[in-house]
Amino acid sequence: MASGAISNAVIEPPRNGALLRALNVARSYRLGEALIHAVHDVSLDIRGGEFVALLGSSGSGKSTLLNLLAGLDTPTAGAIHVGGKNLAELDPEGLARYRRDTVGMVFQSFNLLPRMTLEENVELPLRLAEVDRSERQARVGEALERVRLGARKQHRPNELSGGEQQRGALARALVNRPAILFADEPTGNLDSVNGEQILLLLQEIQNSMGMTVVMVTHERPLAERFASRIVMLSDGRLVG
Amino acid sequence: MKGRDLTELAVRNLREAVLRNSLTTLGVAVGVASLVAMLSLGVGLQALASQRLNKSGLFDAVFVTARRGRGMGGPGGGPERASAPNPAGKREVAKPLDEGSRQEFAKLADVTEVYPQIRFFTDVKYGGASFSTNVLGLPESSRATGSFDGMTGKYFSSPTAEEAILQAEFAKELTAEPATLVGKELVLRYAQRNETSAADIAKEKDIDKQMDEMMSGAISIVTREKKLRIAGITDADPSAGVGGFGGGRVFVPLRTAEALHVAQPNDVQDFVRAGGSNKPTYMALTVRVKSPKDVTRVEEAIKKMGYSTFSLLDATRSLRLVFTVFDLFLGLFGSLALTVASLGIINTLVMAILERRREIGVLKALGATDRDVRSLFFAEAGAMGLFGGIFGVALGWLIGQTLTWGTTIYLKRQDLPGVKISHVPWWLAGGAIAFAVVVSLVAGLYPAARAAKLNPVEALRYE
User: How far apart are CA B283 and CA B344, in angstroms?
Assistant: First the structure.
């Protein structure tokens, strides 16, 4: 079963209008006696095919907002609509399917599973999506070739450089052909050269696959260079 | 996630923390081994007891006597033996236990052998001296009873051999060195029943006697001698307790004994009751069935045919009950070790959750459902149970074999034959593995539920 089909079944990227819509979204945590408002009353529209950078300093709430949009967390107030569907209406199983079929995730610390080879790491989303074994190998090979790691597929993460690990993580995020790619500080653990390479690769993939990219970063120059739109956050609120 | 993927991931995860998971699996294996060793002892001892009892011929046999007055010997000599009045108040005529009834019994389903009890008093002549004793005819099936295991000499060469096996105590009376008797000959002196035929009556010269014989029939008893070769000497008493009919000290093949037409205690009584019929009847017949479970049915069928029966089936039922309780207790003690092992599984999996918190977060971020995560931990627990179960069964079998080996050495030092005290049947091996898997899955319930409930954002934040 092709995951692209599942992806389309769950989220139909609109031809016009917003693919992702956050309406008065808030997320607060209780930390002892104190109530922390990580995201406060954020409304945001992201159109299909956009490369949006969520820019802000540490603690501004940009990663929390990204987690909410990616369906990893649920807002305490407001609503998030993806392809016209309210994520709040999805049960945990539905949210898992949304993350599996519609979303791809890249993290600052790569998060490749150390027990597995690069190939097995990239294959993991296909296993979760119950894609046929016969199809998996071709899809994994294709994703690794796209990030230029075809020759390293038998290596474990600890045998790869930071840049290679992040490219591997990118291949894993792409293998299910998601409609939206969320990247949380993808260059945060990389030197400037490797960071730039990753973003060039991300831009290239976004252009060729026509996907929507939402990237969290605190580096304004990178955001300005690669993103088609910058959304600023400060103290959990949108500031521009 | 598909079952095969789940299994692959679970096995891969188990391989990664090989030392800890091996130790946990070993814990399960020791638990299963203790369970299997205990139960295999129970099963082995039960099988040994059943085998010995079955071999004794007590539990797969129905003892049949004719329904008639008391005092004819045999186990059923109670009120049932008296001919019972029928509902109309008339006394039924007892059916004789003769060759016809023997053949009828042999035709019943699951009957393997029907033979009479032939035992008679004799004088044994050996080395110029005379010794009084009892002779017992042994059916062919007595060879398999185990009574002749380890005997001096050999069992009868054929069912009609003119051979005798002596009971060791009796052999000692004949000579100080019983082993030297094997192959030698002895002479049996016995009373033969002789039916007087019509031709014999016609030869009678005294016309009054001839008339009497014609009116009433006649039997006579004459003394005969038979030369037999001593085939062997046995320590055991092969007839001990068989139906409570008492034993013999000289054993001959049943067909050889039958051919002797020895006068039996019931001959005179039958002659009187039957008003002079010269048709021979049996004092009692033993009907042997395929297995003890067939006894009740065959016994009922024979009763319906109008004979008295007796079997020791109740004793086997009690034996089964005793062994069931015994097995239950052994199983309970064996299960204690497995319970301790299940705590090891819980501990290992809870530790694994702490260590793999971030991995669980990644899996959830990639789209794993709560059920996927739960199933993964379940599969790991199940795999530990499966491997532990298989290894445990092998270990338990080995313990049982070692116990059998040790017991055999001990018994042989006591000049006793070795016995197999432990037995692992397929149902025990399969059941123990299944039990180990179930216990492991139950142990994995809590860790799996805890892993499934992890918040992905918090799990990803975990260092």
Answer: 68
Tracing tokens 């059920």 back to the chain, one arrives at B371
> Which range among B93-97, B127-131, B280-284 has the greatest average pLDDT?
B127-131
Closest to B1 (Cβ–Cβ): which among A70, A115, A127? A127
Q: Six-digit token pair at B5?
A: 């993927």
Contacts of B365 in chain A (CB under 8 A): 70, 72, 99, 105, 107, 111
Distance from CA of A36 to the nearest CA of B (A): 16
Q: Which amino acid is at B8?
A: E
Rounded distance between C-alpha atoms, residue B369 and residue B358, angstroms: 15
- Domain membership of residue B271 (yes or no) is no
pLDDT recorded at residue B198: 53
Q: Is residue B416 part of a domain?
A: yes
> Is B128 a residue whose pLDDT tops 50?
yes
B12 touches chain A (CB under 8 A): yes
* pLDDT one-digit tens code per residue, A114-170: 889 999 999 999 999 999 998 999 999 999 998 999 899 999 999 999 999 999 999
Residue of A nearest to B11 (CA): A115
Cβ of residue A1 closer than 8 Å to a chain B Cβ? no
Residue to test with chain A: of B366, B372, B376, most A Cβ within 10 A: B366
Tell me whether residue B350 is in a domain: yes
Q: Are B118 and B262 in contact (CB under 8 A)?
A: yes
Phi/psi of residue B124, nearest 5 degrees? -100, 125
Burial of B236 (0-12, 13-18, 19+ CB in 10 A): middle
- What ipTM did this prediction achieve? 0.90
- Taking residue B94's Cβ as centre, other Cβ atoms within 10 Å add up to 19
Q: What's the number of domains chain B is made of?
A: 3
Q: Is residue B286 part of a domain?
A: yes
Q: Which among B2, B362, B370 is the nearest to A113, CB-wise?
A: B362
Model-level pTM greater than 0.90? no
pLDDT band at B422 (very low <50, low <70, confident <90, very high): confident
Domain hosting residue B282, numbered range: 60-114+276-311
B334 and B288 within one domain: no
CB contact under 8 A, B1 and A130: yes
Tell me: pLDDT of B59 over 80. no
**pLDDT score at A155:** 95
Q: Do B370 and A115 touch (CB under 8 A)?
A: no
Highest mean pLDDT out of A15-19, B14-18, B188-192: B188-192
Which has the higher per-residue pLDDT, B89 or A223? A223
B5 touching A (Cβ < 8 Å):
yes
CA distance B218 to A188: 123
